[in-house]
Amino acid sequence: MKILVVGSGGREHAITWRLANDPVKHDLFCAPGNAGTAAIATNVDVGAEDVAAVTAWARANNPDLVVVGPEAPLVKGLVDELSKIGIPAFGPVASGAKMEGSKRFAKEVMDAAGVPTGKAEVYTDPAAAKAALAKFGLPVVIKADGLAAGKGVIVAETTAQAEEAIDDMLVANKFGSAGAEVLIEEFLDGEECSILAMTDGETAVLLPSSQDHKRIFDGDKGPNTGGMGAYSPAPVVTDDMLPEIKEKIILPVVRELKKRGTTYRGILYAGLMITPEGGKIALSGSKVNVVEFNARFGDPETEAVLVRLGGSFADALLHAATGRLKDEDIVVKDEVAATVIISSGGYPGSYEKGKVISGLDEAAKTGAIVFHCGTKMSGDDVVTSGGRVLSVTGMGATIREAVDKAYAAVGCISFDKMFYRKDIAHRAFDRN
Ligand code: AMP
Ligand code: GLY
Description:
432 residues; alpha+beta; Rossmann fold; Dna Ligase, domain 1; D-amino Acid Aminotransferase, Chain A, domain 1; 6-stranded antiparallel sheet; 5-stranded parallel sheet; 14 helices; binds adenosine monophosphate; binds glycine
């Protein structure tokens, strides 16, 4: 198949890598890709968010499938445009991507579908929002409705913090139009995990569970990032939860969207909170609650999940994109995986770019897979070009083996001010 992958991060490198490892060879392209995808596909000089340019490339080159990585082009309607010219695309249309683009919309759909989630109310008036806080108790969660690059959620421990968050969004417009509406949400107690469900708008198949590490420092300290590591599976998700997640969370959402006229095709990513034994049960009465939905593969979860899939990934994606998805399309290997993100020093704040990366060949020899997140070529050198730079995945029979393999490869790599967490998968180890 001729396949275009849209995006330029570790997720897109992992998608491209997995396609390159299919039983049959594909003709692979990335728009715009990075230094990692350049080694296994043809990078095309088209920005991922440039809907018109990606559509023009597709019209001219007629791929069998376009796989859209990031949320921005989905929200902007790239898949709608591709469908107008008859090109199958993996990813939801804009009305489906709204599950990620608007937290208010996602809550509305969940409520209509009876999906367990934190109880929330929506406000545009700061005084009314503050008056409502007392009902929720503490801690309480304040969220901007729209996309705010992961920064629009404040878990407030005190009323003063909650009021400040409300003022930031509704008075100071700190998040622009994304914060023109705020949600006040019940705090959910527990451990988070990610379930990526592949759906063709009718049926769904759950990919293996995973867990992200959102904070920058070891022990889950410091500011939130795009994700500093992941591992799969996440033991907090027990096998008995999986049918419940599919039947009570994923499929009801897919059906509710269908009822509203949206055939959702692609990944429906459920960020879930699992309440521990003895933890505070949410108002929904369920131990498994949705924290958020995303309309795409997670990053870095994808780098830990896709390496565990066997079979033909292109067929699975094409079947989902064209309404023919079957359980057999997803084959999961026994090996487990752990992914360590290497970032630029200073991230998620400001950081420098253009640092020469050394040791990539040595790292590859360890057997781990080095996915590129924010890199580019500068002459013969691979240099840093983003906050998250590399995503290093190890696999093994046990999580210990997978983690050790990933860190052995990380140890080969160096660049000025490089940073990474040393405790990836600590929650899996804490359980043993
Ligand atoms: P979101 O962008 O909705 O995923 O929120 C970002 C992060 O805020 C989540 O990954 C959680 O760690 C935290 N969070 C969001 N909503 C809640 C909630 N209702 N209860 C507890 N933590 C939450
Ligand atoms: N890893 C979190 C996300 O992809 O949104």
